[in-house]
């Protein structure tokens, strides 16, 4: 069986790629495997895979529906997130926004609030924006063609293929992180899988796996094989339905493909946060900028501590810069540690009062009353800090 090595370092597709680049990649979406792949035993591999899938398919509630909206929501939630984590969010989200129209007419605060805790909030913002487009341009019906799906915010090539195949039964290829690994191993695609040439090759292999009329099952079967059998570490080759055709298994390469990414040191930052409690018990929160990390969420006035600064000095400076007031620090109320995808933080919370100036209200500043159902979404660390403080106060 032939092997393949990618060379260029530019990644063009996949769930995490830059959207503009993903869209450019879509223009080259393969309808079928290219000439160099036609010799490969796709039919045999696909038949084994589908036979296995008929008895081993994972049960998930979004697989019990053909409602494109529900499948779309599930596919977005599953990006970079485990199935077990998604399940309660998926239920709550659909109870609150059961269809495109209800999502399109919701406020961004409502949507972010339903998403709170799931992370990667750009997904929620894009889903909301896309629902507005589907409601306005497609009469509330999600389009079925990958090209139309990819024109919507937050839908890349693989997600478009997955929605198209799973919701509409079209014969479309997918290439999420699990499927990339599975295909690379089956066909012994060596080298960096994130290069543009490797991406093209893997998309081609994925297209080759789709036999006529089996797009939905092929997509789901590849996902299941990656999630439960062809694991990143120690794949279960002896239980694998395609081991007889797997080039990596035959050559003993399954631990080498894909190559391990070098581990980079994860930076850590100390963040200082000011808790101002109003007369009614509410806390002053500031809305974060609409885009970027935690975009649109509401958080305590906070900032990063410079390396040479004490926590208290950094806090006074942050508050003066953000709110234009001078403060007295009453006491430290708690410390919360949190890990994001590329860095870690320790959030230090201090109860504060104003000694000079006036706290803002309106225009991105609001008093948040815990438990009052005000529909504000908070970052995980801020929510934990607030709960920690309230728990101590009430104990
Ligand atoms: Fe993956 Fe092993 Fe199956 Fe090959 S035989 S697809 S490496 S689990």
Summarize the structure.
The protein has 395 residues and is α/β, with parallel strands linked by helices. The protein has helices spanning 19-26, 42-56, 68-77, 83-96, 100-104, 108-115, 122-137, 146-150, 157-168, 177-186, 196-209, 215-228, 247-251, 311-323, 380-394, and strands spanning 4-5, 189-190, 268-275, 283-287, 298-299, 302-304, 326-339, 344-356, 365-368. Residues 182, 185-186, 229-230, 235-237, 240, 242-243, 246, 248-249, 254 line the site of iron/sulfur cluster.
What does this 3D model show about the protein?
The radius of gyration is 24 Å and the shape is elongated. Mean pLDDT is 90; it is low at 1-31. Strand 7 and strand 8 form a beta hairpin. The protein has 2 domains: 4-251, Hypothetical protein, domain 2 (Endonuclease III, domain 1, Orthogonal Bundle), CATH 1.10.340.30; 268-394, Nucleoside Triphosphate Pyrophosphohydrolase (Alpha-Beta Complex). It has 395 residues and is an alpha/beta fold. Strands 6-3-8-7 form a 4-stranded mixed β-sheet, sandwiched between helices. Helices cover 42% and strands 13% of the residues. The chain is built from 15 helices and 9 strands. Helix 2 (42-56) crosses helix 12 and helix 9 (157-168) crosses helix 12 (215-228). The longest helix has 16 residues, at 122-137. The chain has helices at 19-26, 42-56, 68-77, 83-96, 100-104, 108-115, 122-137, 146-150, 157-168, 177-186, 196-209, 215-228, 247-251, 311-323, 380-394; strands at residues 4-5, 189-190, 268-275, 283-287, 298-299, 302-304, 326-339, 344-356, 365-368. The chain starts with a strand and ends with a helix. Residues 182, 185-186, 229-230, 235-237, 240, 242-243, 246, 248-249, 254 line the site of iron/sulfur cluster.
């Amino acid at each position: 069986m032939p092997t393949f090595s990618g060379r260029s370092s530019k990644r063009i597709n996949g769930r995490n790629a830059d959207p503009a680049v993903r869209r450019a990649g879509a223009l080259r979406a393969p309808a079928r495997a290219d000439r160099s792949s036609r010799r490969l035993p796709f039919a045999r591999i696909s038949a084994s895979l589908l036979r296995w899938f008929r008895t081993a398919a994972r049960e998930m509630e979004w697989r019990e529906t053909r409602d494109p909206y529900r499948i779309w929501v599930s596919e977005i939630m599953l990006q970079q997130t485990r199935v077990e984590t998604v399940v309660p969010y998926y239920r709550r989200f659909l109870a609150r926004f059961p269809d495109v129209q209800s999502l399109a007419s919701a406020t961004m605060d409502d949507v972010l609030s339903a998403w709170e805790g799931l992370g990667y909030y750009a997904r929620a913002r894009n889903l909301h924006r896309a629902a507005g487009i589907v409601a306005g341009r497609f009469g509330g019906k999600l389009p079925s063609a990958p090209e139309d799906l990819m024109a919507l915010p937050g839908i890349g090539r693989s997600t478009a293929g997955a929605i198209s195949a799973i919701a509409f039964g079209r014969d479309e290829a997918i290439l999420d992180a699990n499927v990339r690994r599975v295909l690379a191993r089956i066909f012994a695609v060596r080298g960096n899988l994130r290069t543009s040439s490797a991406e093209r090759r893997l998309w081609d292999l994925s297209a080759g796996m789709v036999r006529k009329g089996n797009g939905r099952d092929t997509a789901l079967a590849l996902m299941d094989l990656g999630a439960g059998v062809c694991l990143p570490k120690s794949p279960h080759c002896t239980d694998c339905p395609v081991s007889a055709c797997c080039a990596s298994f035959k050559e003993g390469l399954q631990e080498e493909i894909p190559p391990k990414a070098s581990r980079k040191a994860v930076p850590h930052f100390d963040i200082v946060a000011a808790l101002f409690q109003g007369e009614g018990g509410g806390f002053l929160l500031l809305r974060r900028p609409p885009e970027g990390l935690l975009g649109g969420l509401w958080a305590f006035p906070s900032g990063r501590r410079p390396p040479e600064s004490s926590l208290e000095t950094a806090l006074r400076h942050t508050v003066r810069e953000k709110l234009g007031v001078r403060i007295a620090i009453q006491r430290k109320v708690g410390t919360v540690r949190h890990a994001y995808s590329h860095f870690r933080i320790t959030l230090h919370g201090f109860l504060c009062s104003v000694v000079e100036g006036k706290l803002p209200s309106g225009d991105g500043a609001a008093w948040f009353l815990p438990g009052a159902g005000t529909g504000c979404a908070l970052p995980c660390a801020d929510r934990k800090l607030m709960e920690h403080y309230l728990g101590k106060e009430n104990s």
